[in-house]
Amino acid sequence: FFFLLRKMDALPSTASVLISPEGVRVILLGTAHVSRKSVDDARQVVNLVKPNILFLELCESRKSMLSVNLDVTHQSRPVTYQDMQRVLASGSGVSGLVQLALASFTQNIANQLRLECPPGAEFAAAAQASSQYRSLVVLGDRGLRVTLERMWHALSWRERLRMAYSLLFEDLGDLTEEDLERMKQSDMITQLILEMSEQMPSLLEPLLRERDRYMAYGLRECCRSLHAGELNLQRLQQQQQH
Predict the structure, then answer these.
(1) What is the pLDDT of residues 41-76, one digit of tens each?
(2) Which are the contacts of 112, defined by CB distance < 8 A and separation ≥ 6?
(3) Are 123 and 56 in contact (CB under 8 A)?
(4) 45, 164, 183, 216: which is deepest, by most CB within 10 A?
């Protein structure tokens, strides 16, 4: 009991401890996707807790983030016309173009932030640390393509035009040093969504609230399955989709 309390006291300040109805202990870690400290926090939590399950805010289409080189300073390249041609040729349609526009916008901000690590590097750090404990890694977020398509259909035509203009043409030069430091200390993507939703309220439901419900259900099923002694990943993904 006292050992457990000491271990919980050693967790980062952004970590929360929850107990499921089955008695399964869940550690939730809040991170900023552009922060070296978040990378260290993720590694620290995994080494302290030695989790049975590592539940990440990632989907299969972003699985490559788990293999990024954490020792390389991140440098974002601009999105090119060839990138747009490649997206159109792939047949991914509107979701691909929206994803490319979002990537262009976040890369511009990432360059101004002068990042010391790739965005989302805390996922790779946690997964790499968990491998020595044979933790089961669960990619619990909804598919990116589904989310972007639902977002696009939720927007009015006026909101779509406003969003396209904001992502592709608005100047980021008016960001102050205070703005940059604030972004380094929080989740940059969520912060951008919240700011954009002030002019495009329809963004909140598909980009944040639906995904939160999706991941909450997945996490709840992980707790139930862990308590029962088995976890069927295929069944979990099917249930989440419904």
Answers:
(1) 999 999 999 999 999 999 998 898 898 776 655 555
(2) 172, 175, 180
(3) yes
(4) 45
Q: How many CA atoms lie within 13 A of 231 on its CB side?
A: 20
DSSP label at 16? Answer: E
Tokens 């709840």 belong to residue: 220
CA angle 66, 238, 90 (to 5 degrees): 60
Cα distance between residue 210 and residue 213, in whole Å = 5
- The residue whose two tokens read 């006292």 is 2
Kindly report the backbone phi and psi dihedral angles of residue 228, in degrees, each rounded to the nearest multiple of 5, phi listed first.
-80, -15
pLDDT of the residue at 185: 58
Q: Three-class SS string for 192-229?
A: HHHHHHCCCHHHHHHHHHHHHHHHHHHHHHHHHHHHHC
Q: How confident is the model at residue 182 (pLDDT cuts 50, 70, 90)?
A: low
For residue 241, CA distances in Å to 57, 98, 217, 228, 234 come to: 15, 22, 10, 22, 11
The angle at the Cα of 16, spanning 136 to 123, to the nearest 5 degrees, equals 40
Amino acid at 164: A
Helix, coil or strand: residue 18:
strand
With CA atoms as reference, report the closest residue to 100 among 152, 65, 35.
152
Residue 110 token pair: 């990432």
Phi, psi (rounded to 5 degrees) for 160: -65, -45
Against a cut of 0.70, is the pTM above it?
A: yes
